[in-house]
Write a structure and sequence with these properties.
The complex is a heterodimer of chains A (about 270) and B (about 300).
Chain A: E1 5-10, H1 19-27, E2 58-65, E3 72-79, H2 88-92, E4 98-100, E5 106-108, H3 118-122, E6 129-130, E7 137-138, H4 144-148, H5 154-158, E8 164-168, H6 169-185, E9 192-194, E10 205-209, H7 229-251, H8 254-269
Parallel strand pairs in A: 1-10
Antiparallel strand pairs in A: 1-8, 2-3, 4-5, 6-7, 9-10
Chain B: H1 6-10, H2 18-43, H3 46-52, H4 56-73, E1 85-86, E2 91-92, H5 99-124, H6 131-141, H7 146-169, H8 174-177, H9 182-201, H10 209-236, H11 242-245, H12 247-270, H13 279-300
Antiparallel strand pairs in B: 1-2
Helix pairs in contact in B: 2-3, 2-4, 2-7, 2-9, 2-13, 3-10, 4-5, 5-6, 5-7, 6-7, 7-9, 9-10, 9-13, 10-12, 12-13
Classes of the chains: A alpha+beta (about 270), B mainly alpha (about 300).
Bound molecules: iron/sulfur cluster (3 copies).
Chain lengths: ~270, ~300
């Protein structure tokens, strides 16, 4: 395997210009959203609202005010697939259409995907959607085609502030830790790294956040969907035993059954 | 405060709609009727199995309809074989970590047992008389292999009836993930609906009275059990109870599923002459309708409000 690559998204340097989103759309030739899905959200400068089949990168705009609106802050987060080490999408895919590449990224094989949409619920970050046009699951590929020819992802290249930093995950983590220290020393007490090994075994695309994850709409403690599966199977077995016993109880009364058989035999004899 | 709840809205809905609701519904009835007919076969007299054998007529056609629904639900239906075969490496596609993969296989395995029993039902009804087929079907249902065949078939049916709930549980939509009781709920409702269809299929004949009595008793037990499981399920959803218990879905759940689909049929079981001769027919139809709407609510409710629904 080649090195483990990913991206650091440093939200402290993001200016919300959306160049990354445009570059992603251009490079990957993503179509416009269908007309019925285009709407004014009325939410800050966000007009995408969500990652989707046609938007593999989405810049979140978070406007916050205090009670009397005398103080405010404006946060941005450029969001995409996180290329998780424990990838829920990959675990639930019934066709193995979601694979890990030689760069340790998570990639959807469009020749294998059947469009069952199970991966959509397997991802804890709502990254995937199935395209109405192609009929297969869509998400960021970490620009697999560019990586194969030694280029960095289009979004990272387009980012004017280097908020999206592409590279080898371990060295990116060191960079992030340095910036975290620096920001803390400047009074940003809530600054933190989101995506170390405590989050789904580590996210190849991880974040330097200025506040708690839920402020950015990121789950505090995402899990694999399989966390529920064994419990669910255990309950299934208990249910199976319970319904089996109830049905048996209802159908038991062997004495009467035998009597019926005996009567029938007697009828035949007559 | 975050001005808009990105966490809620960042999850995507898989947009599973009518095909999946109907699939879960027919799979439940197929499994429920097979299990009931098999239990009746293993415990009942020859006279009784004359009635219960009709239950075997349901499994195979319903599995075929279910398989068709599953295929047309795919966005690339022509590739449905990818569920069973991994073409890039030319190996069978089997993945234990995903209930959808196991479910695909379970549908096929159950289909095989359902086909055996379908044949047996035709033999018993004298619609098939080819000696070799008669011998084969009888050996699997009355002869030395009856127990093994029916118990394995029932296990496949149990899996088919529950895995649909495990599938919903193995996800991130809070209304699906919050309670591990969905598979039990689907199983019990499949059993009660399967039994209700069998009641409707049983002709009024003296020699089938004992069987009818037992079938109705079993259905009553299932309805009672379903009520308990359903209430516990909604309670166990905690803060996500509203996804199934309020608004349009809540109305359907409390009025159609609980009221019309469980409580009214239960009253009719206690007072079998409430509507004269038709009581059993009406109560069975209500149980079946309730079974459909249960799936409607549990599948659509938790998806509603999420992106892509
Ligand atoms: S972020 Fe979601 S889509 Fe991306 S790898 Fe992780 S689970 Fe899969
Ligand atoms: S939609 Fe495609 S990638 Fe997603 S789970 Fe289904 S087959 Fe796998
Ligand atoms: S890495 Fe490539 S595919 Fe992913 S968001 Fe950036 S430009 Fe888009």
């Amino acid at each position: 395997m080649a090195e483990r690559v990913g991206m650091l998204i440093d939200t402290s340097t993001c200016i919300g210009c959306k160049a990354c989103g445009v570059a992603c759309k251009e490079w990957n030739e993503l179509p416009m959203a269908p007309e019925d899905k285009v709407e004014f959200k009325g939410l800050s400068y966000d007009n995408q609202g969500h990652l989707s089949d046609t938007n593999w990168r989405h810049v979140k705009f978070i406007e916050q005010f205090n009670e009397d609106r005398s103080d405010s802050r404006w946060l941005f987060l450029s969001d995409s697939c996180k290329h998780c080490q424990q990838a829920g999408c990959m675990e639930v895919c019934p066709t193995n259409a979601i694979i890990r590449t030689e760069f340790d990224t998570v990639f959807i094989d469009h020749d294998t995907c059947i469009g069952c949409r199970y991966c959509v619920t397997g991802c804890p970050f709502g990254v995937i959607q199935v395209s109405d046009i192609k009929g297969t699951a869509q998400k960021c590929t970490l620009c697999y085609d560019r990586l194969q020819v030694g280029e960095q992802p289009a979004c990272a290249q387009a980012c004017p502030t280097d908020c999206i930093e592409f590279g080898e995950v371990d060295s990116l983590m060191k960079l992030a830790e340095g910036r975290e220290k620096l920001l803390k020393s400047q009074g940003y007490d809530n600054v933190r790294i989101y995506g170390k090994s405590d989050i789904l075994g580590g996210l190849n695309v991880f974040y330097l956040l200025l506040d708690k994850p839920d402020v950015y709409g990121l789950p505090e403690n995402p899990q694999l969907p399989q966390k529920n599966m064994m419990k669910s199977y255990t309950f299934s077995i208990a249910g199976m035993v319970a319904t089996g016993v109830l049905a048996l109880l209802a159908f038991r009364s062997r004495r009467m059954s035998h009597k019926a058989d005996a009567d029938q035999d007697q009828d035949k004899a007559v | 405060m975050n001005p808009y709840d990105y966490f809620t809205h960042q999850l995507n809905s898989p947009s599973w709609h009518w095909e999946i609701i109907w699939y879960f519904f027919v799979a439940g009835i197929a499994a429920g009727s097979y299990i009931t007919a098999s239990i009746a076969q293993l415990t009942g007299s020859k006279a009784e199995t004359g009635g219960s054998v009709r239950g075997y007529l349901l499994g195979l056609p319903l599995v075929m309809i279910g398989g068709f629904l599953l295929i047309i639900d795919l966005d690339r239906p022509e590739r449905f074989l990818h569920m069973l075969w991994y073409f890039p490496q030319n190996i069978p596609m089997f993945k234990a970590s995903t209930p959808m993969s196991l479910g695909g296989w379970a549908l096929g395995v159950f289909g095989m047992f359902a086909a055996f029993s379908f044949l047996y039902a035709l033999v018993r009804m004298e619609k098939v008389t080819t000696p070799v087929l008669v011998k084969f079907a009888n050996a699997l249902h009355e002869g030395p292999f009856a127990k093994v065949n029916l118990i394995l078939g029932m296990l496949a049916a149990f899996y088919l009836a529950t895995y649909t709930g495990v599938l919903a549980n193995t996800s991130h939509l809070p209304g699906w993930a919050a309670s591990p009781l969905i598979p039990v709920l689907f199983l019990v409702s499949g059993m009660s609906a399967g039994m209700a269809v069998m009641v409707l299929m049983t002709p009024k004949k003296n020699e089938l009275e004992e069987y009818m009595h037992k079938l109705e008793r079993a259905d009553t037990y299932m309805i009672l059990f379903e009520l308990v499981v359903l209430v516990t399920f909604v309670a166990s959803l905690g803060r996500w109870w509203y996804t199934v218990g309020s608004g349009l879905y809540g109305t359907l759940l409390w009025v159609v599923v609980v009221g019309l689909g469980l409580l009214v049929p239960l009253a009719m079981k206690w007072k079998p002459n409430l509507l004269g001769q038709r009581t059993a027919v009406v109560s069975s139809i209500l149980v079946i309708i309730g079974g459909y709407f249960l799936r409607y609510v549990v599948i659509l409710g938790p998806q509603s409000g999420y992106n892509g629904f």
